Amino acid sequence: MPKIRTSRTKRPPEGFEEIEGILDEFAKKMRDAENESHEGKRKAESSWPIFQIAHQRSRYIYDLFYGREEAISRPLYEWLLKQGYADANLIAKWKKQGYEKLCCLRCIQTRDSNYQGSTCICRVPKAQLKSGTIVECVHCGCRGCSSDS
Which residues form a coiled coil (predicted)? Predict the structure, then answer.
């Protein structure tokens, strides 16, 4: 959880108290993932839990605001984005068709791909892959975030 500066920052909008406990749980998970031992893991593999927790936290806030019940208000949603509780760029992609299940922004960046000008392998629909092929994203450990999978 990002630090909230009480001297410069306004108080959180109404409704923050209801979700504060869950956001604290995400913060604890994030601290545990950051402090976890990296022994025996590949270089990229050590950051996968951090990506996954950040994704879960952003998805939680997204679902609260854009879900069926609309559990949080717009001022609270914008405050959460401004304070860094959720990734605003990732949420902006989730609103677009074909990116509803996107795991991280690195998976759609063409410059980070093994093949010039393409996206990550986890973005390929599972129906187009060879049967029995296990897909695992190099960047975040995702096993497929294509909307068609």
Answer: 16-43
